[in-house]
Each structure stands twice: as structure tokens, then as C-alpha cells.
Amino acid sequence: MERVALLRSLSTRSTSVCRRILFRPRPRPRLFSSGPHRCKQQAQFLYGAAAFRWQPATSSAPPVRLRRYLSFSPSAVSTSPQPAAQDFDAGHDIAEKLGFDKISEQFISECKSTAVLYKHKKTGAEVISVSNDDENKVFGIVFRTPPKDSTGIPHILEHSVLCGSRKYPLKEPFVELLKGSLNTFLNAFTYPDRTCYPVASTNTKDFYNLVDVYLDAVFFPKCVEDFQIFQQEGWHYELNDPAEEMTYKGVVFNEMKGVYSQPDNILGRASQQAIFPENTYGVDSGGDPKIIPNLTFEEFKGFHQKYYHPSNARIWFYGDDDPVERLRILSAYLDQFEVSPAPNESKVEAQKLFKEPVRIVEKYPAGEGGDLEKKYMVCVNWLLSDGPLDLETELTLGFLDHLLLGTPASPLRRILLESSLGEAIVGGGVEDELLQPQFSIGLKGVAKDDIGKVEELIMNTLKTLAEEGFTTEAVEASMNTIEFSLRENNTGSFPRGLSLMLRSIGKWIYDRNPFEPLTYEKPLQSLKERIANEGTKAVFSPIIEKFILNNPHRVTVEMQPDPEKASRDEAEEKEILQKVKANMTQEDLAELARATQELRLKQETPDPPEALRSVPCLSLQDIPKKPTHVPTNIGDVNGVKVLHHDLFTNDVVYSEVVFDMTTLKKELLQLVPLFCQSLLEMGTKDMDFVQLNQLIGRKTGGISVYPFTSSMRGQVDPCTRMIIRGKAMSGKVEDLFNLMNCILQDVQFTDLQRFKQFVSQSKARMESRLRGSGHGIAAARMDAKLNVAGWIAEQMGGISYLNFLRDLEKRVDQNWDELSSSLEEIRQSIFSRKGCLVNVTADEKNLNHSTKFLAKFLDSLPNSASAELDPLRNHLPPVNEAIVIPTQVNYVGKAGNVYEAGYQLNGSAHVISKYIGNTWLWDRVRVSGGAYGGFCDFDTHSGVFSYLSYRDPNLLKTLEVYDGTASFLRELELDHDSLTKAIIGTIGDVDSYQLPDAKGYSSLLRHLLGITNEERERRREEILSTRLKDFKEFADVLEAVKDRGVVVAVASQDDVAAANEERNDFFDVQKVL
Ligand SMILES: [Zn+2]
Peptidase M16C associated domain spans which residues (predicted)? Predict the structure, then answer.
């Protein structure tokens, strides 16, 4: 559950300011990442924050390319130049007294940190204590939890331990922390062989509160005594009335049903299990919905007792707090245990290499009807070695991965997509998160007859690359990209200390040196020298040959579309349930109905105030009274408005150039996303796109182009802009602006073949978004019915866009000339000095240094004035809609505009909507409804208040919960503590931790949307002075959503049919997959 999400600043929605989740926390940050196409979802999150925040494709979603660079996020520490100094020697005597042996200590220059490894003498628990000057402190406790079957024990346990503990005896301390702490990260993940519990905060008092709740949760959870927690989070039979049908319920059960509805996920799981048939990776730690109901409470308890023990724990502390205090907190917990045999029993055994390649075929649920011919997927996977590799080999493999797949210009990726054998890449390239590294690559959207050709193309391409090597330009571009990201060390909203922890734990968990993955400098330099001395071929060819071409441990996974699979699975489940029910006596059934009732009653009964008070909370005195200030200087360069943000950025210059998009004709709108991709991936007269991409890689830290759309409060017309965003080291700012200029003006829209690939890739991406983030699609659709900005966004990123792409795919060949001139027309109408705005973030010296290059760039922009157009005023018809897809779980949304109902914005709305999400919706939609998530969102710019659910077994029942929100607020009783908690939690969201580039960017968006500092201060005061009466008044506002809101559900055929029968054609039905 990544809760990175709740994040919304006062001022902006649909912008990166407000949604931390933009930068999707990656459970597996690595030194090198091969990009957005990875299909393996190896870790399950406790809370789907990533999933919970939808991002219209057209808003400021950080450009995929840029995001990829950001996610390299290698090493940590501080935006300030000075390393921290800590008095360690004094600390070590105390460590000894507190019961810890110091094993080793190292200064890690890559992250300007001192790291000490301790062992707890009594239990053998290992602790790494990292000290530096990063205020974003991180704690994590990790247990090795290799499963023996696919009942999902580790995953269910991960959810359950956060449901109350000895010291915090309430239903969900985790939710109380979400409500009322200043956390900058709070979540838990289950990997195939380990479970991690990380927290982060910049406030020391808050940080230690979080640490204490997490430590008590993992060591002394209530769930091992309370069967009902196991039922709620894992699985149980639900029977409301002995006469009705019985169903399965459970949060993890439904979460995994959602996972098993997504072809990419099924492929990832099938590949992993086939590569590792003999060890723990051959089963699913997340849980297979068909197998989860085999799990007993006894097994569940036994697993906790065995593995959640200090002897099997690895603990991480990081940041600028006192290292002695950390050990003091830990010893209080660890000293309560004796040593256990857990560490030996939890050791992960290696998979031996195959002698022969293997081939498997899997089916995935496809929609009924429709063309299934080009719906096959094929992925070729290798297990690279029978044991762990040394660091230098791993680094070389990571580098090779970037060379093969890292950018659109990388040869393996490019050749596969150019072949037209498939629509999009699958497989994540090199995976080095588990005991043994793997390599996976393939295509989806493949015709049955072409499967063999894809495999052949992969093998032949790799063979050719081994024979011929890579060009110097390609290697230089990869090297610069990697070094830039190492230097920039930008982890987005993901705490740097957590990114480091996950990297370290990837070795530590296998009893290897935990510091090794943090010190990349030496092996990187030696790799660079080897490339310089021996040439790229001598370095990479033997690696490709040894680990891939001559490696018999190869598994080819073929995925076939099966239109009957979804309904067959459902029928199978029904049959099992009917059998179980048939074997029950009348007494059993009555007992089950009683138990169902009892569980629901317990779930819906609020915790007593004394239990709630056990969770420590800050007081309002701990909260800064003023919003965070971002220095902003508004000036003028050659007649263009320029915003300067003087912030320390370690010599990186960040810049955004913003153009007006209202000058664009309506009929061209849907081409905009493809236009943006063409700018970066089509090439100019002098450079093909490979050369252009390599040049971007060699000179900059990345460039992206994307549209941005939002409503503006109090105005009819929305803000619609196009943004080109880039970053470079200060010595290369001239190159950055030259490249921006080249992208905006010199790219030629003449490559039909490339354009066709963009269309099919975009279509494939939209289709997988529908299955994986149906709530985002539903939200965009509702917005499109309620306001113009929403309509524009949906045209460029919703169902309307998918329909457009499908139609375009058919006519692109015959209409190419017209399309090509339309792309040119978009350029002409948008890129002009008129209406342009520039944002630059760097320190003063670099701001000054970059101005002359910016001036030159602005001079070269055309100064054309576009024809005046009538403003767009479109909406989709406000009817209730069901989007039917093959799925076992639904996404249900309802939304209405509260400004139209007369509501005047007040900061209290943030407190109230967060509170509704964390109480009413969490309890009813997730806890008792069995959905993975239920939440609400208030767009303060448009006034749209929306409810959404995620991986939801219900449909109409969820709508009833939404409609009950107003009554919930009216009847609400809120004591002083709960109110304070709600306020503090909201401030935590508003003050979300931001690295300097994000601060500058947020400030730009506030400028675009007309949010002043005075307004931010006023909203903050309103948040801080929120009272119970504000909640009651908001009930009337939500009454309007209940009565006049629109409903959009992305749901299964059966559930939609049942709903339409029950409610008399409530939904207009559209079948899209
Ligand atoms: Zn989960």
C-alpha cells in the first residue's frame, strides 16, 4: 500500500505538487533501470497509494522519460553540500551497553554518510545505522519470509500485523498514522522472499512515534490471536442470510484477484515461477486467489512465530537524528526475545541452472468477441547464474541493460518495436532484486503466427550485438545518463534513505555485504576504464554470450488470450462455494451468518477513545504556522516572463518552457500526445531519432514534452498548456536549450513507420491502464462529464482517446499526408514566443549563467500570432456509464461539482475529505466491503468532489456507501484528539517533502493556476482552525453529489448486467475490451 499518495497540496490538483504519487514509489530502485516497460510486479504493497491516485495522461504527469531518469535514484543524501559530522566514538560505548556489537563502520562518500553495522548480542538482529544531514529520516524493518506455497501467507501477514498490537490495541494503528502523522512515507511491501516495513518523516518526534508503532506491530501483533483479523485481511466465507449465495471476502483475496486480472502481471508471475521451479520463487508470495482459501489460521500464526523474530530481522535507520536514540528504542524491543533458529530456516536456496530451454503456455482473460488474433504475448526469460554475482559483473549487466533497452533508441527495444511484430515491450530486462539475477524481454499484441518470429528476432538481435558491439555514441549516452542520475540523486517523492535501504537490503538479505551496493563509484570508474582501454565489444560481448546466448536456462512464456477465462474462473469459484455450502448443516449456515454479522459489526464499531489515544500524535504546536516558501523571482528575458527559483541543486539546472495551447484547433486535440512523442522520437533533417536521443543522453539529464490541463477556480475556461521540461549540469545549459530548440523546431513529421509504432504502443498502454488503473479511467470520464478541463484531458488520455487510437490505427496509412500536416499545424499553432513562460530552478550563480543561453533560445522562437479561436466549452453527456472489461474486480466512481451547488472553498475541505477517505470509505469500502481501496478526491480548482474504489468486489453496494457519506458526517462525533489528528495529517500532506526541482515545479504550477502565497496562507489557517461544525456543514455539500452526481464504473459484464437488472437500466453500457 503505497500511501505516498494522499498527497494533495492546497493549491494544485492534477499537478505534481499535489500528488506525491506521481513518482510511483518503486519497490525496487536500482542503479540502472531499463525503463517503463518492466512487467514484473514482484512486490505487493500494503496500501495501493500508487494505485489510488489516478493521473490523467494529459496533466502534468512527469514525462515518462524524465520519470525513468528520476527513478535511477541510486544513492542518497542531502541537497546541501556539507557532509554531516557525528560523534561516533562516544556512541559506541553506549551501543555496547545497550546490547549491540559493532560489526563494521564505513564512510560512504557516494551518499556522504557514515554507516555502522551492529549485531544485537542477545538475538543476533542486525542493524544498520546511517548518519548524515538528510532531514527526511527513514526507518525500516525487514524479515526474510520465503513462502512454501501460494496461499499468500507473507502478504496477508504484512496487512494483518498493522491491524493492532499489544501497545496499540486498536483496529488499525496504521490508519491512525495515515490520518494524523507528518509521515513522508508509510507503507509495507511483500517481496517474493522478504517483507519490508518502512516509515519516513522529517519531524524527529513524529519519526520516533512511527518507529514505535511499527516495531510493536511486527513483534506483538493482535492478528496472531484474533481470527477475525485474519478473516478480514486474508479470506473468509461471507453469508448474510442462509438463503443467499455464499461468497469469498478478504482484502488480500480481492487485491490478488485484481492482480490476476491483468495480463502483464500474469505474464510476470508465470515467468518468475517457470524460471525458478525448484525454490521459493516458484510460488506466489502475494497469493493466488484460487489457493488463498486453503490457508488456515494455524499456518498463519506459525509463520509469524517463526519469521517475525529479531533473529530473522534486518533493521535500517537513516538521517540526521541521534544514532544513540535509535539503539535505545531498538534494545527495548529486542531484549524481550531469546535467540531463535529462524535465520537458518529462512535462507533462500538457489535454483540450479537447467540443461535445456523450457517453454510454457498460459492463458489470460480477454474480452469476449473482438479481434483476438493480435492479442498474444511472448516473453523470453533467462536465469543468469546459479548464484549471486560479484558487484562489477552486476554493474556491467546493469549497464548492458540500459544499452539494450534503456531508451527508445536502444537497439533491442527499437528493433523489436520496429519489427511491427507486436505493439509494446514486455519483460523488465535485467532483474537483480532476488538471489539470482534474471533477464526478460518480449512483446505483447502479437499475432499467433508471429510468436516464433519474435523469439527469433530477440535471439538474432542479441547475437548481432554480441558480434558487432555498440556504437561509441550509444555507450557515451548511457554512461552520461547513468552518471547524471547518480550525481543528481533525485528520487522524486520517494525518500532517499528508503531508496538506499532497498538497495542495501537486496544484498544484506542474502548475508552479503550490505554496504557494497551503496558504493558504486569505484566499480563504475573501473568499468569506464575497461571500456576506454578494451573497447565496448571486449566488455559487453562476452557478457551477452555467457549469460544469455550460451545459457541453457531459458524459459519462453507464451500467453494466449482466452475470452472464456474470466467467466470460467468465476463459475469455478461459484461451484466451489456452492459445494461448501451444500455440505453445511442448517446450524452451520446459521452460525456462518451470525459470524458474518459479527465481523461486520466489529468492523463498523469505532475504536474506543482510550485505544485511539494510545497512538502517539503531535500537537498543533509542533506544526509550522506558515506554508513552505519557495523563493521566486519574476523577471523578463527578451519580452518573455521568466520565473527564477534560487535553490541549491548541486549544479543541476532545471527548466520548463510553457506554451499556450488554447491556440490549438479542437480537431487536433487528440493528436497532441502523439505529437509530443514525435517531437522526441522522430528525428530531424540532420539527425535520425537514434542520434537525437543519444545526443539528449550525452548532453542532458533528460528532456520531455507533455500537455498540462487543469480547471481554474472561478473561471469558465481552463488552463491548457504544453510544457517542455529538461535538466542538465550547469556546464551544459547551452546544449540543453539548443536541444530544446531543435526538438521544437527541427523535428520532421515524416516517418510514417515510427508514427504507426507510437499509435500501437499508445493503444496498448491505454488498454493496460484500463485493467490496472480502471479507477483512473473512471475518474477521467467523470471529470469529462463535469468540466471542460476534464473533457480535454479525457480526449487525450481516456476512453475517448482509446477509441480515437483504435480508429487511427486503421486509417493511418491512407491518411498519412494529412496526419503529417496536422502535426506540423500543431507545431505552428503552439510554439510561439507569444504567451510563452519560462521557469528555471538552480542556485543564483547558475541562474545567472543560464540567462544568456535562454535569451538566445527565446530569440529563435517564432513570434507568430495565431488566429483567435472560440474557447472550448465541451462536456461529455452527464449520464451514468459502465465501461465493461474482462475483470474479476471493479472500479466504481461517483462525482459531482460542489461549487455549482453553491459551496465556497475553505481549507477545512481538505481536512474533511481526507477524514472521509481514512474513516468512512476505508471502513466501508475496504474493511467490510472487501475492496483493496476506497477513497475520495476534491479538486479545488474545478470543484469536483469524487469517490472512487479500487479492485472492488461490489458495485451498487459501493454506491450506497458513497451516498451515505453525508449522513455519516451529520452523525459524526469528533473529540479534540481526533480532530487534531485529522488536521495534522492534512498539514502533513500539504507540506509533503520535496526535492528542489519539485519545489520549483510546484511553484510554476501555482503561478499558472493563479494561486497566490496569500491564498496559501489563508488556506493553511483555515485547515488549522477546522472545527466539527465544518464537517456538519460539508454534509449538505455532499448531498448535492449524492443527488446530482454522475456515476462511472469500470466493471465486469456480469456485475453490470446484475446492476442494470436491479436498478432498471441505471448504466449506459460500453464494452471496451
Ligand atoms: Zn496488499
Answer: 559-808
Over residues 130-177, the pLDDT tens digits come to 999 999 999 999 999 999 999 999 999 999 999 999 999 999 999 999
Torsion, CA 903, CA 795, CA 720, CA 710, rounded to 10: 30
Contact 59, 710 (CB under 8 A): yes
CA R_g for the chain: 28
Q: Is 233 a catalytic residue?
A: yes
Percent of the chain with pLDDT over 90: 83
- What nine digits make up the cell of 175? 490508519
Residue 441 has pLDDT above 80, yes or no: yes
HEC letters along 262-315? CHHHHHHHHHHHHHCCCCHHHCCCCCCCCCHHHCCHHHHHHHHHHHCCHHHEEE
- CA-wise closest residue to 983 among 210, 199, 181: 181
C-alpha cell at 784: 469529462
Neighbours of 228 (CB within 10 A): 16
In the chain, count of helices (H) and strands (E)?
A: 39, 28
Distance CA 129, CA 319 (A): 9
Residue closest to 787 by CA, chosen among 835, 720, 861, 839: 720
Amino acid at 185: F
pLDDT score recorded for residue 67: 25
C-alpha cell at 513: 555485504
Distance 332 CA to ligand 1 centre (A): 29
**DSSP 8-class letter at 737:** H
Question: Could you tell me if 692 and 761 are in contact, meaning their C-beta atoms sit under 8 angstroms apart?
Answer: no
Mark the residues whose beta carbon lies below 5 A from ion ligand 1. Answer: 44, 255
Length of the chain: 1073
Other CB atoms within 10 Å distance of the CB of residue 220:
17
**Could you tell me the distance, in angstroms and rounded to a whole number, from the CA of residue 395 to the centre of ligand 1?**
31
pTM: 0.90
Q: What's the CA-to-centroid distance between 214 and ligand 1, angstroms?
A: 17
763, 41 in Cβ contact below 8 A? no
C-alpha to C-alpha distance for 658 and 838, rounded to whole angstroms: 6
Ligand 1 centroid–CA 1053 distance in Å is 25
**Residue 687 burial class via C-beta count within 10 angstroms: exposed 0-12, middle 13-18, buried 19 and up:** middle
Please state, as a whole number, how many other Cβ atoms lie within 10 Å of the Cβ of residue 662.
17
Which entry of 158, 431, 433, 558 is annotated as an active-site residue?
A: 158
* Burial class of residue 871 (count of CB atoms within 10 Å of its CB; 0-12, 13-18, 19+): exposed
Q: What are phi and psi of 798, to 5 degrees?
A: -120, -155
Bridge partners (DSSP) of residue 380 are 441, 556
The residue whose grid cell reads 490478488 is 256
Interior angle at CA 328, CA 324 and CA 333, nearest 5: 150
Q: What is the C-alpha separation between 624 and 610, in angstroms, rounded?
A: 28
